[in-house]
Amino acid sequence: MAHAHKLEILRGLIKFKNVTQKIWGVLILLSIITAVEVALGIYKPESLKGQFLGMKILNWIFIILTIVKAYYITWDFMHMRDEVKALRRMVVWTAIFLILYLVFILLQEGGYIEGVYSKGYIKHDF
Amino acid sequence: MSTTVANTGTEGKAWGGGNEPLKASYGKMMMWFFIVSDALTFSGFLAAYGFSRFKFIETWPIADEVFTHVPFLHGQEHPMIFVAFMTFILIMSSVTMVLAVDAGHHLNKAKVTIYMLLTIIGGLIFVGSQAWEWATFIKGDFGAVQTKGGNIIQFVNTDGHRVALRDFVVAAPSDRVQHERKNGLWFVSEGALPSYSINDVIHGLESHPEVLVRTQTINEHGHKTILSREESLKQLKTNGKHVVEGANLHENEYGSPLFADFFFFITGFHGFHVFSGVIINIIIFFNVILGTYEKRKSYEMVEKVGLYWHFVDLVWVFVFTFFYLV
Known about the structure:
The complex is a heterodimer of chains A (126) and B (326). Chain A is mainly alpha-helical and 126 residues long.
C-alpha cells in the first residue's frame, strides 16, 4: 500500500494491531452506540425530557450519538482518516456547512408557520 | 500512488495534470464528490421532513406508535426492535465491505470474494426488511376515521390502548361497489373501498361504551389527546367523514398525510440506493471472480463501490435517527 493506515481511534485511547482488528473494534463501538440509542428510544427516561436550546435533551443525545456514528463510519470504514487533509476538508466541510445552513433555514421557517397556525387565528383543526 | 489504475503518461509533469495534490485517484475522488452531492440531496429530504414536522409539531404522528411490528410476532407491540435489526444488518454489511477492501489491499482474491458475497447478502436482507416494513405500513393495523378537515381520529379503550376498527365495528350491508373502468366510465377509477362506512363506525362507537376517540393533538405529557365519552361521540358524528385503513400518498391512518409521504419518499429513495448498491456490488463480485482485478494487480474498484456502500449505511444512520428516534 502506498499509504499506511492509522490504527488508533478515540484520539489514541484505543490502539489496534492491524486493520482487521480496528474494523471489528469500530463495529463494537457502533453497535454499543446503536444499542444505547435503541434503549433510550424504547424507554424514553422522564429525566431526559427537559428542554435545552429549544429541543428535548433526549433528542440532543440522539443527534449527537448519530454524528458520532457518522464520524466513525466516514473516518474508519470510508478511510477518511487516511486521506490527505485537503480532500478531507473539501468533502466534510462543504457538506457540513451547506447542510447546517439548509436545516437552519427550513426549521426556522417551519417553526414560524407553526406559530402562525397556532396563534394567528387560522382554524386548521375542524 | 501505486494502486492507481490508469497511467496517463503525464506523471510528474506538474502542469500537465500529472500531479495528485489530493493523493487520490480520479475515480476515488469523483466517488467522494458524488457522495457529497448525494448527501446534500438526502439532507434536503430530511430537512424538508423537519420543516413539515415543525409546521405541524402539535399533531405529528409519534413514530414509536407507528412502527411497532416485528415479523412473526402478530399483535405484539415492539417499537424500535425491527428498525434496530435493520440498522445492525446494514452496519454488519458495511463491516464485511471494509473487510473486502482490506483483503483487496493484500490482493487476496478468495477473501475479497467471500466478503463481497456476505455484503451482497446483507444488502438483500436489508432491502427485504424494508419491503416488509413498507407492506406493513401500507396495510395498516388499527384503522382510523378522517374528519372533514382532513385530520385523523383514532380509537382507544379506557386504558388508552389502541382499538382496531374490526374489534368494535360491524359492517352493514352496502350496495356501494368499487367503481372500476370496466363497469363505468372508462376514464374514471377509484381506489379500493374501505371495509366500513362512517355510519358503521358511529353505530359501533355508540354500542361500545368503553371505546373513546383519540385525536392527533399532542398534550403536554407528549401523548395524544384522548377525548371523553360525550366528546368522542360528538367529534365522530359532527366531523367524521370516511374510514381510512393503511396508508397511501393521499391519506393514512397514522395522522398527517405528509408523514406517510415523507416515509415513502425518504426510505424509498434510500432503499433505491441500497438496491442499486447491491446491483453494483454484484457486478464487482463477478469481476472479482473473473479475476479482472487480479490481472490489474489493484482492487481499487472494490474500494470505490465500498465508498458508495458505506455512504448508504451513513445515510441510514441519519434516517434512523430522524424518522424513528427523534
